Amino acid sequence: MTEYARIVATIVLKDVRLEARTRQTLIASTIFTLLVAIIFAFALDLAPATARAVAPGLLWATLAFAGILGLGRSFAQESDHGTLDGLRLAPVDPSALYVGKMCGNFLLMLLTLAVALPAFTILLGVDLLSPGVFPAALLGLLGFAAAGTLFSALSAAARTRDVLLPILFLPLAIPVILTATGATRFTLSSVSTANALGVLLACDALYVTAAVLLFIYTLEE
Amino acid sequence: MVRRLSRALDIVVAPAMLISLVLAFLYAPDEATMKSVYRIFFFHVPAAASSFVGFAIVFVCSILYLRTRKQMYDLLAGAAAEVGVVFCAVGIGMGMLWAKPVWGTYWIPGDVHLMTTAVLFLIYVSYLMLRASIEDDERRARLASVIGIFGFAGVPIVYFSIRVVQIGNHPVLLGLEPRMQLTFMVCMTSMLLFFTFILVRRVRLELARAEVARMRRDLLELAYPREATARVVAGAAVETQWNAPDLAPTSEVPS
Predict the structure, then answer these.
(1) Is residue B63 part of a domain?
(2) In a domain, B236, yes or no
(3) Which residues of A touch B154 (CB under 8 A)?
(4) What CA–CA distance (Å, rounded) separates B225 from B252?
(5) What is the DSSP letter of B30?
């Protein structure tokens, strides 16, 4: 078990180090988030009550699209740099590779969230920084990362990977977007979020389990 | 086996569809509030149900493919997804036509059944997109299987995620009068037969295509034993080989 954790940590550290040096994906997804928040704020010009009703949906749609930017790079860069073969040849449990990559993507999405929440709070005038928002946000992003990492690996093998990833990822991201949006909206209007969080948790568990079992098939050559 | 099944379906499907049309439009009585409008129900529900059968076939065949690596399962999964998507589109379309006069709107965004079906439709459209974008047979089969399994496993989650956020108003069960019930049973059976008919046709087409590819390879092998092997190993295009002067067709080609 400690061995497994060590492998996962190695992969996460590799991705973190790579991102810390190039900052490509991080800059792209945070700037994208800011741009979208600004566009929404200007294009919709919302009254406070309406803003509270639509802000959760806008936030999660933005996070999903920003997430795709990062997820697309996740395996595409491995494949471009030829490091995917290295991962394939590594004498470790393939599921550890998946968990490592997923944690890396999750961290990246957390950083996007760290930009998105203040941006939406300021630009739309809705208090998205209240502590009740965070459980749904963390569970939702975990679900995104779980499905997204699998699809990133999948689409990296296809010819048209850049267009394929959103098409594969979004249908299965819909439950996460819907539930997380619901939970965020419930929090803002002080309704209990227990059910929504339960569904999100079940979703995360199912996605992670299915992806761990299926990941090995995306690596074969 | 496939051919015999196909022939049996050829004979059965057209009369079955005809009988269901007669029953649905002439035999079944008008509904109390919806009058004749409800009759689309006899085709809307079976079409949607058939598409779910198709997606379940994709799921099972995907698992079987990853376990056994038999091409046949991939072929069946691809065919079932294609036919399932068409039936799903038909089911959704008919549902919308029915909803307009009854609910006053084509679509209710928060409805559990509508949204689940729409998401399901999108999942299998993306499945077909993935299949279309990979040329290599083995790789396409393997990656498509991953989506076939993951997508189907996600369906309950889709359902509950919508359920927790919104409340649906799509009727789950209608109280059916005996004549309506009979009509519905017949329509369901004939729609499933029709679905199987198209599915089997689709599978036969794929089998024929595989057969042609194999015959073509055998023929090339006969004509140019050495080069054909080299071609297979190198995976080079046949056309480039034909352009090479020393490989031009000669009298050695068996008639």
Answers:
(1) yes
(2) yes
(3) 147, 172, 175, 206-207, 210
(4) 11
(5) P
What's the pLDDT at A213? 93
Q: What is the pLDDT of residues A56-86, one digit of tens each?
A: 999 999 999 999 988 988 888 888 888 888 8
What's the pLDDT at B235? 46
Cα gap B134→A196, rounded to integer Å:
37
ipTM of the complex: 0.89
Residue B26 neighbours by CB distance under 10 Å: 8
* CB–CB contact B134 A217 (8 Å): no
Instruction: Tell me phi and psi for residue B19, to 5 degrees.
Output: -60, -45
Q: Two tokens at B231? A: 């071609």
Helix axes A94-124, A133-156, angle to 10 degrees: 130
What pairs with residue B31 in β-bridges? B35
Structural domains of chain B, count: 2
This prediction's pTM:
0.85
The residues spanned by each domain of chain A are 2-219
Spell out which residues of chain B touch residue A136, defining contact as CB-CB under 8 Å: none
Residues B196, B104: one domain? yes
The pLDDT tens digits of the residues spanning B77-118 come to 999 999 999 999 999 999 999 888 888 888 887 777 888 889
Chain segment B16-33, per-residue pLDDT in tens: 999 999 988 888 888 777
Q: Tell me which residue range forms the domain holding B166.
A: 2-213
Q: What is the DSSP letter of B33?
A: T
Statement to judge: residues B160 and B254 lie in one domain: no
Alpha-carbon span B62 to B59, nearest angstrom: 5
Helix (H, G, I), strand (E, B) or coil at A93: coil
Residue in B closest to A167 by C-alpha: B126
